[in-house]
Amino acid sequence: MSTIRLFYGRDSAEMKSRLEASAKSDNLVSTLEVRETVLEDEVIDSIVALIETGNVETVQLDDCGAYLNASAISMARALGKCKHVILSEPTFLSKFFLESFLTSATKLESLKIQDRLLAPQVEALAKGLKGNATLHTLDLSRSRIENVSALAQGLFENKFLKCIKLRSVGLHDEEIATVVSSLCGHPVLEFLDLSFNHLRDTAPLGRLLQSPNCRLSKLLIGYQNLWQTPKTNISSIVEGLKENKTLRNLGLANNKLRDDDTDLLVTVLKESRSLEQLDIRENIFYDRDMVNLAEAAKVSRGLKKLLVVKNPFGSEGSLALLEAVQENLGIIYLDVCYSDSIHQQIHYNTALNRGGRRLLLERPKPPLALWPLAMERANNIDWGEKFTQNWGQQESSMLTDPRIDVLYHFLQKSPVIFEGMLCET
Fold it and tell me: Cα 296–301–304 angle (5° rounding)?
């Protein structure tokens, strides 16, 4: 499978010849990218013929113009036979084109649009969403949406979307509330990204998490535009998580969260029934805050990944995090740097957790059958060159095979495990 890229500088005859040759070639084309060029009718017809072969899965039309005529309509209908479409150009985002494209789409799974969408275009998009049963991912990141109410209505009437991305769209509280309210009770929505907007009030998101049919597993609301304005209030999300049983990934990076949010996040870590990843990077948590969060992480039932870099905590907070990954064997990733020995030990312990430490520390003693599984996990650990260069004073042989590192750990920390196994053999 190959990719065809048609960029600025190619004339129509050359593009047509290349497309026709690809349609007849045994080297199947899976991706077509067209950027910064004007498409004549003969080129569009060749693109349609290539798509009709049934092998093209992804088409990207970026800043490439065309006339709105019969050829453009044939292109719109052909695009509906692709799985993934990326549009970033006014011609192929016109009301006329969008209606023909979305209403005729039969295989479309993901649609990414990046441009300014005027009210008629948003209405056409909403109409297409209403009747489409194959689309599962809609990405409008970095667009500007003139009629948010129309979009919300389209989202409300579509019951098949699993992923909605609205990053950096310039949405404020009222607009976000309109969109989120339309998603309450959505039967299959799993991923909602509202990062890089102007969110302050999370009450609508709290209601979404509490809705009986909520299936949301990933919610990203980091990096809100907080210049000279109050920070995002996360209390409603915390309340929602007390009842929610599906959310696994919560992104709160760079939202000016500080000490008065610590208790809320402690509640999340202790009480959430499903949370596996918490991203609180680039906030304002000091040592005392991180100590409290680490204590909660120790007893978190599902936590696997905790992202905390670029918070102003020091060695006290780092030691608390080290203790958390040593006691909670489910934590397999904690994104501290390699700046000192404490952080190196954190990486070492999370690597051991990924290597199956939980299995091998079962009591009264782990069965021999678990050892091959744990060694296989350890062998797949990405220890990293920097890690092996900096870790401890072990012999070089300890660093050439990560399985030896795991064995070394258990010989050092829990020799009784090996005694039990010797008895079995």
Answer: 85
Report pLDDT for 278. Answer: 97
Distance CA 93, CA 99 (A): 9
Are the beta carbons of 166 and 144 closer than 8 angstroms?
A: no
| 282-321 burial code (b ≥16 CB/10 A, e <16) | bbebbbebbbbbbbbbbebeebbbbbbeebebeeebbbbb
Beta bridge partners of 164: 138, 192
What is the number of other CB atoms lying within 10 angstroms of the CB of residue 238? 22
Alpha carbons 51 and 239: distance in angstroms, whole number:
49
Q: Which residue has the tokens 């389209």?
A: 154
Residue 265 maps to a domain: no
Please, which residues bridge with residue 333 across strands? 305
Domain end position, chosen among 108, 136, 168: 108
Tokens of 31: 């991706």
Enter the tokens of residue 136.
């599962």
Query: What does residue 225 show for φ and ψ, rounded to 5 degrees?
Result: -75, 100
pLDDT in tens, 314-343: 999 999 999 999 999 999 999 987 668 888
- Structure-block tokens of residue 208: 């979404």
List, for residues 217-239, the tens digit of each pLDDT value.
999 999 997 665 677 889 999 99
Domain at 14, CATH number: 3.80.10.10
Instruction: Specify the pTM.
Output: 0.86
Residue 166 lies in a domain: no
Number of domains in the chain: 2
Average pLDDT over residues 13-19: 87
Distance CA 133, CA 354 (A): 39
DSSP 198: B
pLDDT at 243: 87
Which of 91, 108, 125 corresponds to the end of one domain? 108
Residues of the chain by 3-state class (helix, strand, coil), percent to 5: 45, 15, 40
pLDDT, tens digit, for every residue of 111-157?
Answer: 999 989 999 999 999 999 987 889 999 999 999 999 999 999 999 99
39 falls within a domain:
yes
Residue 242 counted as domain residue? no
Q: CB–CB of 79/53 below 8 Å?
A: no
Host domain of residue 1? 1-108
Q: Is 338 helix (H, G, I), strand (E, B) or coil?
A: coil
